[in-house]
Specification:
This protein has 319 residues and is an alpha/beta fold. The protein has 2 domains: 5-30 and 162-294, NAD(P)-binding Rossmann-like Domain (Rossmann fold); 53-146, Rossmann fold, CATH 3.40.50.10860. 36% of the residues lie in helices and 19% in strands. It has 9 helices and 14 strands. The strands form 4 sheets. The protein has a 7-stranded mixed sheet. Strand 5, helix 2 (66-82) and strand 6 form a beta-alpha-beta unit. The radius of gyration is 21 Å and the shape is globular. Mean pLDDT is 95; it is low at 8-14. The structure holds guanine. The site of guanine has 8 residues, from strand 7 and helix 6.
């Protein structure tokens, strides 16, 4: 069994006198793996603090999207838990592009802030890419700036984008071999699908894979996903990947976060991924939702912020 995974009970199914043993997938637990990484970050944060630097992260939220509010709150809370400096800047839905660009400019200049991000999506009247382009690349802990995207693509990353980096850490730290394996990425967003594919194709640890990307316009997606040794799903549709689309023994990473109606739940909704839960009977290992990729995203954002602070310290020392 790979390291850092939790084995599920075997399901024993008695069918008309014959005994069928159905193996269920091992669980790759982001909750546990992120704790391991936070332990490593604690030591790096202590070292920075001894040198007079407290890593600082600012998060800018424009508008009042409830999901974004939750993510922003979680980022601030995690900074606090790690003893990092955190700033949450909340701006109204009516904020103009010029006002937001002025905020970015202030954050670019603020020496207490080593990294910052603008929570996406932005209101429709703001040009998202123009705002991303205005972020100082050395503080771009989301790794969304074209300069950092380019560095990642040529295999010289300063930062890695949080969600794909979290997926890669799950694979590495649970002992999943990626070298020479066929990775199929489902989805082509700028935040997950495209950078995920770019990272898995690199000559690097936790990569060196043969990569295929499928998306909403791909014909017969199942014929391609069935070839995957490692299937990474970020398409934003609840239960999109069914058991018939998965090769026996594949490792399945579910990046989906979909809220579906559930009258039995207190809130009336329940969080599910993009992968049908019955896929566990086909996969050798799989991430749960919640508790899989989710906790890793915020963890890698913290890791990028600590890295940005370490870089700032190095620059200070070399002056
Ligand atoms: N919205 C959804 N995911 C993200 C993310 O990783 N970074 C930012 N800035 N916004 C997001």
């Amino acid at each position: 069994m790979p390291r850092n995974v939790s084995a599920c009970a075997k399901v024993i199914n008695i069918k008309r006198g014959s005994l069928t043993v159905i193996m269920t997938a091992d669980l790759i637990l982001g909750k546990e793996i992120s704790q391991q990484i936070y332990g490593e970050l604690d030591a790096r944060i202590d070292r920075l603090k001894k040198n007079g630097i407290t890593p600082g992260l600012a998060v800018v939220l424009v508008g009042d999207d409830p999901a974004s509010q939750t993510y922003v709150r979680m980022k601030g809370k995690m900074c606090q838990e790690l003893g990092m400096h955190s700033d949450t800047i909340i701006m109204p839905e009516t904020t103009t592009q010029e006002e937001l660009l002025a905020r970015v400019s202030e954050l670019n200049e603020n020496p207490d802030i080593h990294g910052f991000l603008i929570q996406l999506p932005l209101p429709k009247h703001i040009d998202e890419q123009a705002v991303i382009n205005s972020i100082d690349p050395s503080k771009d802990v989301d790794c969304f700036h074209p300069f950092n995207v380019g560095r990642m693509l040529i295999g010289e990353p300063e930062f890695l984008p949080a969600t794909p980096a979290g997926v890669q850490q799950l694979l590495i730290r649970s002992g999943v071999k990626t070298d020479g394996k066929h990775v199929v990425v489902v989805g082509r967003s700028n935040i997950v699908g495209k950078p995920m594919a770019a990272m898995m194709v690199q000559k690097a640890i936790g990569a060196n894979s043969t990569v295929t990307v499928v998306h909403s316009r791909t014909e017969d997606i199942g014929s391609i996903t069935r070839q995957a040794d490692i299937l990474i799903v970020a398409i934003g549709k609840a239960g999109f990947i069914t058991p018939g689309m998965v090769k026996e023994g594949a490792v399945v990473i579910d990046v989906g976060t979909n809220h579906i109606p559930d009258p039995a739940a207190k809130k009336g909704t329940r969080l599910v991924g993009d992968v049908d839960e019955n896929v566990k009977e086909k996969a050798s290992a799989m991430t749960p939702v919640p508790g899989g990729v989710g906790p890793m995203t915020i963890c890698m954002l913290m890791s990028n912020t600590v890295h940005a602070a370490e870089r700032a310290y190095e620059r200070k020392c070399s002056q």
